[in-house]
Design brief:
The complex is a heterotetramer of chains A (about 350), B (about 180), C (about 200) and D (about 625). Chain A has about 350 residues and is α+β, with helices and mostly antiparallel strands. Chain A is built from nine helices and twelve strands. In chain A, the strands form four sheets. Chain A has a five-stranded mixed β-sheet with strand order 3-2-1-5-8. Chain A has a three-stranded mixed β-sheet with strand order 4-10-9, covered by helices on one side. A two-stranded antiparallel sheet of chain A has the order 6-7. In chain A, a hairpin with an 8-residue loop joins strand 6 and strand 7. In chain A, helix 2 runs antiparallel to helix 3, helix 5 crosses helix 9 and helix 7 packs across helix 9. Chain B has a domain of about 120 residues: Orthogonal Bundle (Cytochrome Bc1 Complex, Chain D, domain 2). Chain B contains six helices and no strands. Chain C is mainly alpha-helical and about 200 residues long. Chain D is an all-alpha fold and about 625 residues long. In chain D, the strands form two sheets. Chain D has a two-stranded antiparallel sheet with strand order 1-2. In chain D, strands 3-4 form a two-stranded antiparallel ribbon. The two termini of chain D are about 20 Å apart. Classes of the chains: A alpha+beta (about 350), B mainly alpha (about 180), C mainly alpha (about 200), D mainly alpha (about 625).
């Protein structure tokens, strides 16, 4: 049937289009799993896809066959007299339709069982003994990340970038500060909504080192499109060094320029919303900037973290992310340059 | 058919009539980015002081629902609620009232926020841009019903659900 | 269309005041809609209630049950008035219709007065919390239906008393009785949820 | 009561009968007269035309969105505009196009198909249309006031709550729903009463045309689904206006409650939209394969089963909120079960086509297109029913692709087929077949070009409802392809409109039954007279017009000097009594205006509810004011 050919052509066309850019977009893909959960789901996906495509093709072929000359009655007597085909045809059709119905019930049952088994396996991939707990709080439009720990000295607060050790299950406990968001890193696991006044949990685990992109998947307002995060999976030792580095307070500004920059930061609205550990800045409404320079992106990874982008972001955030909550402050160049240098020094 | 044309007519009428309530000044105009600087701080000799800036005396964001809600967000973020609670007052005077020491008109409120006032009200002029001050003014006035009800939020949705408290809850407890 | 045979229906009555009337079925559909609405609201009530530990929330006292329970008596009796009227409507008995509707009216008003008195004893309003919102939603929605039914009854009394009525109005009275049965019947679950709900589920916890 | 060998009306009796009938069913003249029409053809046509206008409007919005997404970091619309557009697009297509369009077709066709003169409650019918129109205007007043809803067509709280949606945007959304629900419920009630009580004598339940069955099931779904969306939208509205706390987590409410209540409507809504379409498919297939439908009983049962199961799987829209395993398992099973009922119908149609003698006209083209697209959409639906897979593709473009395959494939294609099938009945002229087939291919190609790539976008991690994306995501090419496809769809729409307009003037004259179709609407004149049938037909088989003429029976003895119809019994449609329908009236419009004042005003000030109720009370009294003659003389 034309429908089938049509769809297949389109499919081919799309895959062609995709291969052109196959290098790009691998970091946020359902079919490029990097952990056990996403791996299981991907397997299930291919299984479903194969089975369902088979069904689709069969149905389409049958439909197409009804279009042959024979069925269009061009080579057969018309039905105008009775408007019913001969009884044996009818009986045959009844048998076929019954069989098809039963078959589809069986297939659906198989799909149901496999899907439930996979679901069960997913929920069993947990490390109850010494879980590594990361609390993710969705906010319009960024992610607050909090490495939970019984020892308050070991609690780390950062934003928009999660580092996890390879091969260790990590428990994501999520909630929201304002509206409903959804935590989604396709290469690692499916979605989990972050709902105000509720805590939702999800277990993720990365089996190979890499940088995986996640994005808010529940519409959350003006800048829903620019609310992404990076998950960096590293070998345990590398993770340890990163973690310890992040625990340290920010380095005191060495040079005069950096001191000036810090002063600018403290004297402007920045200080009301941002925190920099080791200074008097302790705002909680916006990302913690203690080790800002070590992060990959700014504005919830809307832009790569370069001094140029940072300058553009600070002077006019509403251009880059219209509607976001960062204050627009007309800052004169003599103030701006030191501030940028100071922020970029927060390694 | 006649009905359809009628619809089109009133739609075009709507298009012409602008609606202040729904206006969203997402990109504040450069004119409203002014930082008044610490020079604006109140001198203790002349409480009240002259209204600044003389240029604008009516709030540009008056009756704009978006800016009122932005104001209420800033009211929390800049911790105004620390002293004024949610209008009820505490360390600072209540903001839901009829008599204002330094005047309750938009221009007076603007002035108060820019310069600060004796006995604790800090000067914000040096810190936050003009447009945010006007948003705060709009919100403070809405507390006293001096903004159209249709532009004011009926209530704050999730004031008491602080994520940290939520996350501290032992599993299973829902409230 | 051309046909050899015909089916002559001229002997059939031009109307029928019974379950056979299309209007009866239309009314049943509208009642089904209302009933569904209230059941969903009740389900939502219990969903909300089971998410919290203290119910009603601190500060809200239990709505007292004495007056509403007494009020059930005139309410249920009023349904009989309505039944009387609908039977009379079938037999085209004018006196019966007036008396039935009148009885219905008087008892309904008594009930409503009792409800209004009872409202003042509630120490919370719909803005207080979810509990308040639901209680007032139940009361408000049911009162709305109730008043609508009341007005309908009054109108019919006027029509019948003034003699400007025929089969259509009699059918109307018959079908209107369905509405009134519903208004009465739906209040009983709502009454239980509103006044006993908090207590019952509380003890269940 | 059985057909008697009684007196067949003579020619001059018929003449006389016809004249009085014409007279008692004549439309009132003048603009007030036009505003007080109550015949089902007029109201049905108003529904269809209005709904089609909103299909075009929604389509234009969709096209704008496609332009915005055509390339990375595009600034054609910007976030605020984009959010308003996709919300208005979804809301328009769901509430202002799909449901009213299906109801319009039902109102137009059901009385013809069951062989009566009008719907059971003509004035309620008119009222329903005015409410729908008022709701549509209300929403678009908002749109043009820069107050279009911008929170998604299922305005999740707390995003749609008072704190995060300043202004009146979600209020316009919520109140528009109230309008359209009232209208939908009126239609449901009167269609049920019509199908139950006003069928032609002899049309027992097992002889009802499948389209009427589907409208019946749809009407029942409306009755049990719509109240729940009214509750949901009222939660939002009252939280926003009078500060109730139904969904406010701070005061014991729960945002998830809104999702439950909304989806308890939202999922059946899909079936409310496409079950009538299934009925249309059956009509087209029967007429154009020239044979009885295969497995009538199986079809009816699966329609009813769909109606029931449709209420059992709302939670599969909420898997990502983290539900207990067991609940998720149940809803997966339910989602799979509904695939069976749809599958049975597909099989039956294929069997019918297989053993029929196909007349491959445009309508049948659209049926084949429907099968191709809808099967694909249904299969991807099975995929979404599985919890683990749903966690990945939920709220991505994969879902966007899925529901467009189901809704456009499942509802729009049959609808266009229906247009081509019934256009001759509605206008008396056939649509141009050559243009029609071109129209089909353009739409079909454009559709697949637009929505198939979205599956892949979803797998590549593109969430829905994002107004832009960065180049390095690699979503550019597929999106560009989709935009091109959208333009082709628009072209298809233009071809269709051109064909409609051209055929209206110059199409081939159709005659009563151009397709030699079996159902009763083809016995009426095209376009039908206000009274549909000169003499009401008596039905002796499931395919009335395929019974030889000499076995046909007509009803005599109905008075023609007033709008009188026949009420029959529920099960086997025995004549029970005659039933007089009211004359045209302006009161439905006045009532609708009164209710509109209440609804629209209450968005800004809750007291309007009171004023609106008082006004509508007055209007209703006018509506039911006793008519002369008070006594219905036999």
């Amino acid at each position: 049937m034309s429908g089938k050919h049509q769809s297949l052509n389109i499919a081919a066309l799309c895959f062609a289009a995709l291969t052109l850019t196959s290098c790009a977009g691998r970091q946020q893909s359902v079919v490029n799993p990097a952990g056990p959960q996403s791996g299981q789901i991907a397997t299930l996906w291919w299984f479903f896809l194969a089975l369902l495509s088979a069904i689709f093709i069969i149905v389409m072929v049958l439909t197409a066959l009804t279009l042959t000359r024979r069925h269009r009655g061009i080579e057969q007597e018309p039905l105008e007299a009775t408007h019913l085909p001969p009884p044996q045809t009818e009986a045959g059709l009844t048998r076929v339709v019954t069989a098809a119905t039963i078959l589809s019930i069986v297939i659906l049952f198989v799909l149901l069982v496999t899907s439930i088994i996979t679901g069960k396996n997913l929920s069993e991939l947990q490390d109850r003994k010494n879980p590594m707990v990361i609390e993710v709080t969705g906010q319009q439009w960024w992610w607050q990340i909090r490495y939970q720990n019984s020892d308050p000295q070991q609690v780390l607060v950062t934003a928009n970038e999660i580092h996890i050790p390879v091969g260790r299950p990590v428990m994501i406990r999520g909630t929201s500060h304002d509206v409903i968001h959804s935590f989604w890193v396709p290469n690692l696991h499916g979605k989990r909504d972050l709902i105000p006044s509720r805590v939702t949990t999800e277990w993720i685990q990365a089996d190979r080192p890499g940088v995986y992109r996640g994005q808010c998947a529940e519409f959350c307002g003006l800048q829903h499109a620019h609310m992404s995060l990076w998950v960096v999976a590293e070998p345990p030792d590398k993770f340890k060094t990163w973690f310890d580095g992040q625990l340290k307070p920010s380095a005191a500004p060495g040079t005069a320029v950096l001191q000036r920059g810090q002063q600018v930061f403290m004297n402007h609205a920045c200080i009301f919303c941002h925190a920099i550990r080791g200074t008097s800045a302790s705002g909680q409404n916006a990302p913690d900037l203690t080790h800002f320079a070590s992060r990959r992106g700014i504005a919830a990874n809307t832009l790569p973290n370069t001094m140029g982008n940072l300058g553009g972001w600070i002077t006019n955030p509403q251009n880059i992310k219209p509607g976001n909550h960062m204050a627009t402050i007309a800052m004169n160049p003599p103030d701006l340059q030191p501030l940028l240098q100071y922020l970029e020094s927060l390694k | 058919m006649r009905i359809i044309s009628g619809v089109i007519c009133c739609c075009s009428l709507m298009l012409i009539s602008s609606c202040q309530r729904e206006h969203r000044d997402i990109r504040p105009s450069p004119a409203r980015l002014a930082i008044y600087g610490d020079a604006a701080r109140e001198d203790l000799i002349r409480p009240g002081g002259p209204v600044r800036p003389e240029a604008i005396v009516t709030n540009p964001y008056n009756a704009s629902a978006y800016d009122i809600s932005e104001g209420s967000r800033l009211f929390d973020w800049y911790n105004c609620s620390g002293c004024h609670a949610h209008g009820g007052g505490g360390i600072g005077p209540p903001l839901i009232k009829k008599y204002w020491v330094y005047g309750g008109e938009p221009a007076n409120l603007f002035d108060t926020i820019v310069k600060g006032r004796p006995n604790g009200m800090p000067s914000w002029g040096g810190r936050i841009p003009e447009y945010q001050i006007w948003e705060l003014v709009a919100y403070v006035r809405s507390m006293n019903g001096e903004q159209p009800r249709s532009a004011t939020a009926s209530r704050q949705d999730i004031i008491q659900t602080n994520p940290q408290n939520v996350l501290q809850r032992p599993p299973g407890v829902t409230k | 269309m051309t046909a050899a045979r015909t089916l002559d229906v001229s002997e059939l009555p031009p109307f029928r005041i019974s379950i056979q009337a299309p209007l009866w079925w239309g009314q049943v559909c509208l009642i089904a809609i209302e009933a569904t609405m209230f059941s969903i609201l009740i389900a939502a009530y219990f969903y909300t209630r089971l998410r919290v530990d203290v119910w009603p929330p601190p500060g809200d006292q239990f709505p007292n049950v004495l007056l509403p329970s007494l009020a059930l008596i005139p309410l249920i009796l009023s349904a009989f008035g309505s039944y009387w009227a609908s039977e009379a409507a079938k037999k085209d008995d004018r006196r019966g219709m007036i008396l039935g509707l009148g009885l219905n009216l008087v008892l309904a008003i008594i009930f409503f007065v009792m409800r209004i008195i009872e409202w003042h004893s509630l120490n919370f309003n719909w803005m207080a919390d979810a509990f308040g919102s639901y209680v007032w939603a139940f009361l408000g929605l049911h009162s709305f239906d109730f008043i609508a039914g009341l007005v309908e009854t009054i109108v019919f009394v006027v029509f019948v008393a003034s003699g400007r009525y025929g089969e259509r109005e009699r059918l109307g009275i018959h079908v209107d009785s369905l509405v009134w049965y519903f208004v009465v019947a739906i209040w009983i679950p709502l009454y239980i949820v509103t006044y006993w709900g908090p207590r019952l589920v509380e003890t269940a916890q | 009561m059985s057909p008697a060998e009684s007196h067949v009306p003579t020619a001059e009796e018929q003449e006389q009968h016809l004249r009085t009938l014409e007279n008692s069913w004549r439309h009132p003249g003048g603009i007030t007269g036009w505003l007080s029409f109550t015949t089902h053809q007029a109201i049905g046509m108003r529904y269809i035309v209005t709904a089609f206008v909103f299909l075009v409007v929604g389509g234009i919005l969709a096209l704008m969105m496609r332009f915005q997404l055509a390339q990375p970091n595009n600034t054609f619309l910007g976030p605020d505009r984009y959010n308003q557009f996709f919300t208005t697009h979804g809301t328009t297509m769901m509430f202002l196009f799909a449901v009213p369009m299906m109801e319009g077709m039902g109102i137009y066709l059901v009385p013809l198909m069951v062989g009566t003169r009008n719907v059971a409650f003509p004035r309620l019918n008119a009222f329903g249309y005015w409410m729908y129109l008022a709701g549509a205007i209300f929403l678009y007043v908002g749109v043009f006031q820069n107050a279009a809803p911008d929170v998604g067509w299922f305005a999740y709280t707390p995003l749609s709550g008072p704190e995060f949606s300043p202004g009146k945007r979600p209020d316009f959304w919520a109140q528009m729903i109230t309008f359209t629900e009232v209208s939908a419920m009126c239609v449901a009630a009167e269609l049920i009463a019509t199908i139950f009580k006003m069928r032609a004598p002899g049309m027992s339940l097992n002889r009802i045309p499948l389209f009427c069955w589907s409208m019946l099931v749809q009407s029942f779904m409306v009755i049990f689904a719509m109240p729940s969306v009214m509750i949901a939208s009222s939660f939002v509205l009252s939280d926003r206006t009078v500060a109730t706390n139904f969904v406010n987590p701070a005061e014991g409410g729960d945002p998830l409650l809104f999702q439950h209540v909304f989806w308890f409507f939202g999922h059946p809504e899909v079936y409310i939209i496409f079950i009538p379409a299934l009925g249309m498919v059956s009509s087209i297939v029967v007429a154009n394969s020239r044979r009885h439908i295969f497995g009538y009983t199986a079809m009816v049962l699966s329609l009813i089963a769909t109606g029931f199961i449709g209420f059992g799987l709302w939670v599969h829209h909420m898997f990502a909120t983290g539900l207990p395993q067991i609940a998720a398992g149940y809803f997966t099973a339910a989602s799979m079960m509904i695939a069976i009922t749809s599958g049975v119908q597909i099989f039956c149609w294929i069997a019918t086509l297989w053993s029929g003698r196909l007349r491959l006209n445009t309508a049948l083209h659209f049926v084949f297109g429907f099968i191709a697209i809808f099967v694909l959409g249904g299969l991807s639906g099975v995929l979404l029913g599985s919890v683990p897979l749903d966690l990945q593709v939920h709220d991505t473009f994969f879902v966007v692709a899925h529901f467009h395959y189901v809704l456009i494939g499942g509802a729009l294609f049959p609808l266009f087929g229906g247009f081509y099938h019934w256009y001759p009945k509605m206008t008396g002229r056939l649509m141009n077949e050559a243009v029609g087939k071109l129209n089909f291919w353009v739409l079909f190609i454009g559709f697949n070009l637009t929505f198939f790539p979205m599956h892949i976008l979803g797998l590549k991690g593109m969430p829905r409802r994002i107004y832009t994306y960065s180049p390095e995501m690699g979503w550019g090419p597929a999106n560009l392809l989709a935009t091109v496809g959208a333009c082709i769809i628009a072209l298809g729409g233009i071809i269709f409109i051109a064909n409609v307009v051209w055929s209206r003037r110059a199409g081939k004259v159709a005659g009563n039954n151009p397709w030699d179709a079996p159902s009763l609407e083809w016995a009426a004149a095209s376009p039908p007279k206000n009274y549909n049938f000169e003499y009401l037909p008596v039905v002796t088989s499931r395919y009335a017009l395929w019974t030889p003429p000499d076995e046909r029976v007509i009803v005599t003895g109905l008075r023609s000097n007033r709008r009188e119809v026949l009420a029959t019994t529920l099960m086997d449609a025995q004549p029970d009594h005659r039933y007089v329908l009211p004359p045209p009236s302006i009161w439905p419009l006045l009532t609708a205006i009164a209710v509109t004042i209440g609804f629209a005003g209450s968005v800004f000030n809750e007291w309007y509810i009171t004023w609106g109720s008082i006004l509508s009370g007055i209007a209703l009294i006018g509506w039911f004011w006793p008519r002369r003659p008070l006594e219905l003389k036999p």
